[in-house]
Every structure is written in structure tokens, then in C-alpha cells.
Write a structure and sequence with these properties.
Length: 421
Amino acid sequence: MAVKVIVGSLWGDEGKGKIIDFLANDADLVIRAQGGNNAGHTIVVNSKKYALHLVPSGILRANCYNIIGDGVVVDPISLMKEIEFLKSQGVKCDNLAVSNRASVVMPYHIVIDRCSEEKRKENKIGTTVKGIGPCYMDTVERSSVRMCDFVDMNEADLREIINQRNIFIKLNYGDEGVDIEPTVKELMEARNYIKGYVTDTTVIVDRFLKKGKNLLLEGAQGSLLDVTYGTYPYVTSSHPISGGFCIGGAVPPNAITDVIAITKAYNTRVGKGPFVTEIDDDIAHYIREEGHEYGTTTGRPRRIGYMDIVALNYSIRINGVTMIALTLLDVLKGIDKIKICTAYELDGNRITHYPASLKELERCKPVYEEIDGFEDDLTEVKSYDELSENAKVYVNRLEELTGVKIGIVSVGPGRRQTLTR
Ligand code: GDP
Ligand code: IMO
Ligand code: MG
């Protein structure tokens, strides 16, 4: 039995979907525990691309069960469309369950997300505008609609809730809010469509654990987007770190056996917020095009930077990482010198801890070491030993700097482009 947490090391889009789909070959259950359809997890099978937002990345493996857990915020309309899409592609989706404790993202949350961003003017967070933050606000404030209530709700109650929120939106933002009647109709349709998937998933999780099955816990977003540990306020509103599964996935802490950090061979970030190793030169443009670094959910170009060991080691500490899966290594092909940030210089001092203060982070300058790059196309490599020497030097150096074994190296989006060590 193994209960493996898969977390994004830094700011998301590290290739979690690809690695989870790969590992799900040997897994019995995949659980999502936080975030919502702000996530975009891409899986490529036989050149066919699936962009998953709410449905866990084990869905393409027929023998693997999938849970959208208690801590996820679920947009029912988005979920319905995702299941419809998967079914149209021949994916059955009968191995899927949605927690009855999950909070429902309502169309008015999306309006509030948009209005809050507009109100922030030049201090925008750059959210995905999927209503994630406002839904979590309601949950913590104790006014969310939970799945168990949503599936039984009648039209009149739904209409009244939306009406009340429209009044709130008008008062606070001067916006008209949602168009009530079409919204009620769409929500009822989605409700009826997803109702059969909604159940007490804590019971299912417990059953798999008691039977000693293999579980994969699918993190969304990234550790430095965590609402407590991330670059606040430029974060998401949930806990994408390993501990998040205990509060959103009904997995007790002592059940977890491994914590795997999915780590890109370089760094990216979408949305605003500090990024010490960010670059915006020819190399950044090269990486963006080679790595197709455009958001899966919003299509926004991703910001690019060199590997930041200060941030990565912070993430490793707060997650208790036991292994790294290094992804997109192939993208670095053809870069003459690869830089690795090993420390920050802050006000004349060299530091290796990750500052909490945004003002301090803004003053931090990266201290780099350089290693020789590699020319080889890695996408056809079949085993780790076949990697070129310089590519191995980079992998080994990252292991030295983090003290964590890199057990998986990914050299392309496909299943077979995954090298285990
Ligand atoms: P996630 O949110 O962490 O699941 O990552 P995304 O799916 O948003 O972004 C990762 C992108 O990189 C996707 O387009 C993947 O298909 C792609 N990808 C994953 N691993 C590799 C890799 O090793 N090499 C290349 N070239 N692409 C990869
Ligand atoms: P996956 O799971 C990258 C970012 C947004 C924004 C911030 C807050 O695909 O790695 P939100 O809509 O969550 O309130 O936005 O978080 N963000 C992500 N960035 N990958 C993601 O998910 C993200 N989900 C949210 O860009 O900066
Ligand atoms: Mg993504």
C-alpha cells in the first residue's frame, strides 16, 4: 500500500496531470482535495490531449477510481461540461465520485471574482476568474451551498439565494450580478446531470485505505500559491501543500507514505506576484514557445524564470517532500548556459530562506551558478541512462542542492516520455 501525495513545487503547471496519469497505472484511487476549475491539468495519450479542470487525472485509467474531494470547490456547470467532453471522447466516467461536503461555486462567485479584481485596479491578483476565492470566502464565513444541499435544492430556494447575492453585488460593486432565470435553469440542468456522482466520499476513501490500496493525492495549483505559505496575497485561496489532503481529502496524516513534488526544469508563473528568478529575454521567449507555456485554463502567456533553489527548498520543507519528479527537461535543449539560483542577495546579505515579506522579496536579487547546457533532443530518449551527460549533470546538481532524490524525469508530454530511476 502506498499513499502518495503529488504536489506542485512552486506556482503550478509543473506537469502534475501528466505524472499522475503516468503513476495512475499502478493506483486504485486518485483524490483531488482543494482548488476547483482554476486548475488545468493536461494529459496526452496517443497524441490526444485532455485538459482536466475538476475531474482527477486518473480518469483515463479504467481501473482507477477518482474522487473530487471535500475541500474542492465545485462549479457544477463546469463539471457537467467536463464530464460531457470526456464521454464524447469515449471516457466512461463511471469511476468518478464527488464529495457531498464540497462547496458549490455559484455563477455569482464568478461575478464577485471579476468585480473584486476590477476593484483592485493596479493591485490585481490576476485570478483565473473562476469564482474560487469568493466561494472559499463563503465556506469560511459559513454561507456556502454544499453539494449535499445543492442536489436537493428546489428552484425557488435557488432563485432566492441568487437574488440575495445580486443585491449584495449591486450594493458592493454596482454590478447587475447574474441574470436570474437563465442561471437557475442552467444550474438545475447541471444539478440533475451531476447528482448521481455526489456521495459521501469519506466512506470511499476509508474503504480504500482499509483494504491497503494504492492512493494518489492530486494537488492542484502549487505550493507557493498556498494561502498561508505562498506569496500572499498573490496566491490562491486553498492549501495546495501536502497537508491540504488531510483537511480536504479525508486522508489522515499518518496514512501518507510519500510526498512527490512535481518540479519543472525551469520556473513559470501565471498571474501577478513576486518571482525572483524571472527573465524576459530571448531565453524566456525560447522556453515559452518550446514549452508551450500558455495557461491551460486561461490561455495567458506564463512568466518564465530560472530554477530557484531558495523557493524550491522552502517548498520541500513545508511539504515534507520525499521525491522529486523533474518535468519538461527536454525544453531546455539548446540553451548554452543554464542558470540555477542558489541564494538571494538581500540588502547586501546572502540569504537562503524564502522571505515572507513581499517588499523583501522585491529587493532580493538571485545569486546564480551556471552549468553547461545540452544540445540533444531528449524527447526520444527511452531510459535515464541514455540522457546526455550534460542533462545528467543538471539533474545531479539539482539533487545535490535540494538533498532530494529525483526519481522521475519527464522529457515530453506523452506517457512513454517518462524516465524512472
Ligand atoms: P499541471 O497543471 O501541473 O498539470 O500542468 P499543465 O498541464 O498546466 O502544464 C504542463 C504542460 O506541459 C502541459 O501542456 C503538458 O502536456 C506538458 N508537459 C508535461 N510534462 C512535459 C515534459 O516533460 N515535456 C514537455 N515538453 N511537455 C510536458
Ligand atoms: P494548476 O493546477 C497556475 C493562480 C492564478 C492567480 C492565483 C489566484 O493547473 O497548476 P485563483 O483563480 O486561484 O483565485 O487565482 O493563482 N493559479 C494557478 N496558476 N496553475 C494553476 O493550477 C493555478 N490555479 C490558480 O493565475 O495567480
Ligand atoms: Mg495547469
